[in-house]
């Protein structure tokens, strides 16, 4: 176990006991972003470093941009829970988890301050360069666990990360006022939606029915890629944004 931070951007090393070896000696190739969902960064740090919490993350970034490391990057932290992305289900073994302090949707969700966003971008860049993380593998907790999680949510500035070469992003298609696809709908349009979401990486079943799992996955997509309206419905704006994102993803896959 390291006795000092892996990243020079971490000003504090506060080790958590909640970690273990990565399965099969897996090298991390994903960065997973969370919000703390707690009233203060101090409370989050205390919880993330308590053995009885059974949770941890590699880093915590507070609202003033101070970065603390809690688990060595070589180790498997316990931050993703039950999750799925691009066929993988042990997201903890393939990812580095960053907790970003924000009270979250249940405690008065707020914008992420400038100092905090700048620190998150810098930390992600440092990790991505050292660990050779593909840009499309910088993801939200809600992306890998849409049925359970909403973080870091629609107020997080994903476009800013993308400008730094972190994460996929396209300009969202404008809202058009249509109802779009939603719960109870079925047919080829829903099948195509499932296929496209799965191609991006979401863990959806390929059916022709717009069920609760579909609604939650579309909600997660909206929080990350089309935050202007988060309602779980696949309107024209969502579908066009998804098409554009797939084109971007394919272009990066070809250039990899």
What descriptors fit this protein?
alpha/beta; two-stranded antiparallel sheet; Lysozyme-like; Muramoyl-pentapeptide Carboxypeptidase, domain 1; globular; 256 residues
Tell me the β content. 5-15%
Elements, N to C (H/E): EEEHEEEHEHEHHHHH
Tally of domains: 2
Order of neighbouring strands in the sheet with most strands = 1-5-4-7-3-8
Q: Look at the structure and give the CATH class of the largest domain.
A: Alpha Beta
Please count the beta strands (DSSP E, at least 2 residues each): 8
The CATH architecture of the largest domain can be named as 3-Layer(aba) Sandwich
| CATH topology heading of the largest domain | Lysozyme-like
Mean pLDDT: 96
Helix content: 25-40%
CATH superfamily of the largest domain: Peptidoglycan recognition protein-like
Radius of gyration: 18 Å
Question: Helix count?
Answer: 8
Low-confidence stretches: none
Termini separation (Å)? 32 Å
Task: Note down, in words, how this protein is organized.
With 256 residues, this protein is of the alpha/beta class. The chain has helices spanning 41-48, 91-94, 114-131, 141-144, 158-163, 188-200, 212-225, 236-255; strands at 12-13, 19-21, 30-35, 59-61, 67-69, 75-77, 95-100, 138-140. Strands 1-5-4-7-3-8 form a 6-stranded mixed beta sheet, with helices on both faces. A two-stranded antiparallel sheet has the order 2-6. Helix 6 (188-200) packs parallel to helix 8. The longest helix is centred in the C-terminal third of the chain and has 20 residues, at 236-255.
